[in-house]
Amino acid sequence: MPATIVHLIPHTHWDREWYLPLGGFRARLVGALDELLAQCDADPRLTSFLLDGQTVLLRDYLAMRPERQGAVAALVRSGRLQVGPWYVLADEQIPAGESLLRNLAAGHADAAEFGGRLDVLHSPDAFGHPAVWPALGAEFGISLGTIWRGLDAERAHDRDLFWWDAPDGRRALVYHLPPDGYEIGSSLLVADDRLTAAWERVASQVIPRAATRHVAIFVGADHHAAAPDLGGLAARLAARVGGFEFRFSRLDDFLRAARAEAPALDVLTGELRWSYGYTWTLQGVHGTRAPIKRRNSRIELGLVRQAEPLVALAGSASPQADGMAAVLTRAWREVIECHFHDAIGGCAADAVTRAMSVRFDDAEAALREVTRGALHALTGHDSDLAREGGAGAPKLALWNPTARARGGVVIADLSFFRRDILVGPPGARAPRSGQGVLPFVLRFSGPGVTMCEVAPQVLAAEVGLERIDAMRHYPDQDEVDLVRVAFPLPTELPGLGLHLLDAVEGSAPPLEPFTAAQGRNLWNGRVESQVASDGTVKLRAAGDGPLFEGLLGLESERDAGDTYSFCPVPGDAIRRPLRAGKPVVIAEGPFVAGLAWPLALRCGRGGGKNEGRVSARMGLEAVGDSPVLRCTIALDNQARDHRLRLRFPTGLQGRPILAGAQFGVIERTAPKHHARNPAETPVATAPAHRWVAAARGARGLAVFTAGFFEYEWTARGDLLVTLLRSVGELSRPGLRTRPGHAGWPTPTPEAQCLGTETIALGVAPVTADDLAAPGRLEQMWEDAFVPPLAYWMRDYCEATPPQLEQTGLSLGGDGLIFSACTRPSGGRGVVVRCYNVLDRPVEGRWSSHRTIAIAKLVRADETELASLAIGPGGREVAFRAGPRAIVSILLEFTD
Fold first, then answer.
1. pLDDT in tens, 126-181
2. How confident is the model at residue 673 (pLDDT cuts 50, 70, 90)?
3. What does the mean pLDDT of the chain come to?
C-alpha cells in the first residue's frame, strides 16, 4: 500500500500590522527575509517557502531592500518562493466585493512582476469567509484554497478536504487547516531527541482527518523567520518516523496531488463563519472600531461608484486619463492595505488605526481630485482659462452613478461669490467683491430635454470659504455663500449619464410638493412617520400600511470584552435615553422634509466610578417620493466599555432575514440559543453589506447603510444595528465568552470610540414580494446612498465642447445589479460588471450612448471568455447571466 505522503509546507504568517504598527513589523520582516534569501541560497534542500499568500510583504521588503529585487525574482521564478494571490490577507467579510476583487488584481499584478503567482486562495487567518469566496478565486483562474476559521469541522465530517461551491456554482477544492491552524508544524522544529514525540502530537491531529494519502503540515507561525536548520527537517523526520514519505512541497503541488486522488468529498455551500468548538472564529470584530469601518465603506463607494466609472467614461476625452487611472490604482492599494484582517477588524493597536486614517485621508483626497478631473474633461471645463478671464455663467453637472435611468430629487451644494481672500503679500492686487447669493432658478435644457426652470428648495445657507484649484495657477480663495438646495429632476438621467444645468437669476412658480413636515409628523406620497414622545419613530407605508413602532430606539449595554469578543456583564440592564427632546422641523418641503430631536442616555463607564454618557441629535428626512426615510445620528459618545445599538422592532417573529452580501444576498435565521461553549460563545450578531430586510406578506421592514455593518436578528423579530462597541484592550483574559488571550495584551483606549461622529442610515417599509425580488432592495439602497452626483462649477469655462455623449451606459434585466464600470488595463473602452441576485438565469443587456465596436465576456482579471454579438445600430450588447452569476464585459467604442 502506498505510503502516506507528508507535504511539509514551510511558511510564515505575517500580520503586517497588529499589536505593533507597520514600522515595527516591517523592521522584523527585513531581517526575516534577508535570512530566508541567504538560507535558500545556501541550502538546496529548502525547495519551497510560502510567503503567506500576500504580495504586500515583498513590496514592503523591496521598498527597504531594492537591491534584492533580482534575488527575489529568481526565487519566485524557480518556484521556491510562493507569492500571492492576494495583495493583503483581508478580513473577507468586511470589505465590499469589488474591494476583494481589487485585492486579487493587485496581487496578480505584483506576482506577475515578481515572476509567478501561487494559484491557491490562501486564507489562513480571516475571521470567517463569505459565500462568494470560491467565485472570487474563479474570477482569477484559481480553483484551490486553504482556510482555517469559520468552518465547523462536522460540516465536512472532520475531513481535511472539501469542495466549496459558490452561489453561482463555481467550485474550489479547499484544505481545512487543523485545529492548531497554520502553526501546527512549528512544534516540529525541536532537537532530535524530542522530534518523535513532537511528530506524534502533530500526527494525531492531521492523520485521522486526511481524506487522501496526501497530508499537509504547515511549518511556521506568526512573524517567525525560517529556522536555521529548516532544510533538514524532512530528512530528520524520515530517519525517525516509519511509514511516511516526507517532502517539502509547494502548497499548490500538495492540493493538486490531493485533488488527483480525492474520493467523493463533502460539498459545502454558503458562508463559513461558524467554527465554535474547533477554533476561535472571533466574530466580535465586526462591531469593533465601527467608525473606521464606516469610513472604509464610504471610500469604497466613492471609488467604485464615482471615481472609477468617471475616469473610464472620460477615456479619450481626457489626455490625463492614464494619469488619473494610475492615481486610482495607488488609491485602491492604500485602501486595500487597510483591509488586512487585524487592521479593518479593529483588533490592532491604536497606532494601526491612526495609520489607516492617514491612508484613508490620502485615498479620499485622490478620489476627489480624480472625480474633479474626469468631470472637467467630460464637461469641457478648464479652470486655468477661467482664471485667465474666460469664466462664464456657472454650471451644475449632474451625473447618474447608477446603470439605470432615474429621476427623483437631487440635493446639491452651490456657492456664490462674496469677496476675494488674498493669500500672500497683496502687492498691487485689489480684492474683488460680489453680491453673494441672489434669488435664482436652475434651468434644464439640451438634447432630449424640454427647456424648463425650477426654483430649488433651500435646505441650508451660510457664509464660508471656498478654494478653486487650477493646474497652472495658485488657488483662488474666496469668501462665498454656501447654499444647499434640493430640486426635482424634470426628466430622467440616463444610466451613467451626465447633464449640465444653468443657475440663473430669477424666480419660477413653485412645483407641487412631494414632502411635508409638521410637529412630530413627516410624510410624502410613500411613507408616513411620527416621532414618539420617547424619541423612537413610528412608520407605515402611506395609506393603511402596517404600522411599525419603537423604531430607531437607542440603547446601550455593558461590554466587558475586548477588540475580538463582545462580553456581556451579568445582571446588567439595557440603558435607554433618559429623555427625548421635542422634534423641530428642519425642512418643510416641498422636496425634502425633515425633523430633528435630541436624545441623551447614561451608560457604560465614565471617569472614575461614574457612568458615561451618550448624546445624539437624531434627524429624519423624507426626500421626494422615495419610500426610504433618511436617518442621521449626530453622535457624541462619552461612555466606555459598552455596546451602543439601534433597535427596530418588526413584529416578524420566526421569520428569516435577508441581508446584502458581497455580490449577492444571504438568508439567515435568528440564532438558536447555544450553551456557552467552553472555548468561545457563539455570537448572536452577523455581518451585512448595504441592507437587511425581513417581511411576511405586506408587513416588512428594511434598514440600509452605506456599506458594511453588524446586526442582530432576534427570535421575537427585533433588528438591532450596532453603532459602537467601546472597549479598551486589544485582548483581555478570562472573558465569559472567550477564556484565554486572542492577542497580546495591549491597551487600546482609542477603541473606546470616544467623541463625535455622524452616522447615516435609511429605513423603509417593504413587502415579501420585495424580498423575493432583491433587485428592488438594491435600487432602494442606490437611491438612498448612491444619489446623482451634483458637481458645481462656479468658474465654468467651456474650453472644449462637453463630451456628454461619452457617458450613458444602462443595464437591463430583472435581478441584475450594477457592480462596477472600470478602465481596463489596456486603457481602451470600459469593463462593466454586474451580478445576478436571482436563483434563475437572466437575459441581460448593456445599452450605450456610443457605438460599440467590440464586446467580450471576460473574467475580473480581463481574461477573455467569449466574444459577444453587438445588436443592430451598434448600441446594445445582450448576454446571459446564470443563477447568482458575476458577469464582466469589456466594451470598446468606435471612437
1. 999 999 999 999 999 999 999 999 998 888 899 999 999 999 999 999 999 999 99
2. low
3. 95
Residue 824, domain extent = 808-893
Please tell me whether the peptide bond between 568 and the residue prior to it is cis, using omega within 30 degrees of 0: no
CA of 712: how far to CAs of 185, 234, 546, 720, in Å?
38, 49, 22, 5
Residue in 132, 141, 220 with CA at minimum distance from that of residue 865: 141
For 273-340, give the DSSP string.
---TTTS---GGGGGBTHHHHHHHHHHHHHIIIIIHHHHHHHGGG-TTHHHHHHHHHHHHHHHHHTTB
User: Is residue 850 within 8 Å of 895, Cβ to Cβ?
Assistant: yes
For the domain that residue 572 is a member of, what is the CATH number?
A: 2.70.98.30
CB 146 within 8 A of CB 82: no
Q: What is the DSSP letter of 155?
A: G
Note if the pTM is more than 0.85. yes
Count structural domains, the chain: 4
Contact 72, 62 (CB under 8 A): yes
> What stretches of 348-414 show up as alpha helix (H) in DSSP?
350-379, 383-385
C-alpha cell at 851: 457605438
Q: How many percent of the chain have pLDDT more than 90?
A: 89
Alpha helices in 674-774 (DSSP H): 768-772
Give pLDDT, residue 277. 87
* Among 19, 288, 359, 266, CA closest to 127: 288
Distance (Å) of CA 830 to CA 168, 432, 889: 24, 44, 8
pLDDT > 90? residue 538: yes
Which residue from 407, 381, 473, 178 is spatially nearest to 798, judged by alpha carbons? 381
pLDDT tens, position by position, 194-214? 999 999 999 999 999 999 999
We report the CATH number of the domain holding residue 886 as 2.60.40.1180
Closest C-alpha among 101, 296, 229 to residue 689: 296
Return d(Cα 324, Cα 304) in angstroms, integer: 14
> Can you tell me the distance from the alpha carbon of 583 to that of 672, in angstroms, rounded to the nearest whole number?
39
Residues 114 and 260 in one domain: yes
